[in-house]
Input
Amino acid sequence: MTSLDSTLSHSLVDSPMLASVAGAHPTEAAESGAFRHVRIAFQPIVDLKRQSVYAYEALVRGPQGQGALEMLAAVPHARRPVFDHRTMLLALFAAARLDLRTRLALNLAPSAFVHPGTIMSLRAAAESVGLAPRHVILELSESEPLNQQRIAESLQAYQAMGFIVAIDDFGAGHAGLGLLASYQPQLLKIDMHLVRGVGGDSVRQAIIESVIGIAGKLGCALVAEGVESEADARRLLALGIHLQQGYLYARPGLEALPEPDFSWLAF
Output
């Protein structure tokens, strides 16, 4: 076992979040069911202004590369916070093993995001691999109903410690504008269902232009998710969205940091 693996195991066993969610035997819970099959893939978020990688998003995968939805389907709802917590730690140490030299984006469901154990273990784990909070992006998933007061309080706590907070899948979830009214994250990731086809769809363009206007007034940067075509990428860039993510640039790399493809920018 490597020193990183030893640190990870120690962090998981001693985590107060694991103990409180999983009960008296956190190690058994962490090693049962879907937990022991988790692998981590990374997909770049690109900065088209600099033609560089802005961040790598860590994505849950199964032993044969199964997607996050399939893996999450095997996790009981009550254990979703501990699952997110464990995969967060796995992603941090996997990124360290791959010698990540840019930002790391981590996905958290609301129940994990607001849990007091998350912020404590996240800071400790990030420090243990030499990753400063300003290089860690926490993507708040809108995959379940949100307690907006608790989310806003947690947002303030994470940002006060220097972490970057993003709302993931903006425009398709439970919070949306309601959460923005309570507190503003640094990043909004526009949902792929609004992004795909925007190159030739005036309705999608109008919606995204509205989001751009709101984000600009609130001081939030924007990331377009699910960019798969050159036409969509060009339209988004023309609208001013230079942070983009999707198969056009790179597919997720299983336990690897794939290099993005910027070749279309040459034409």
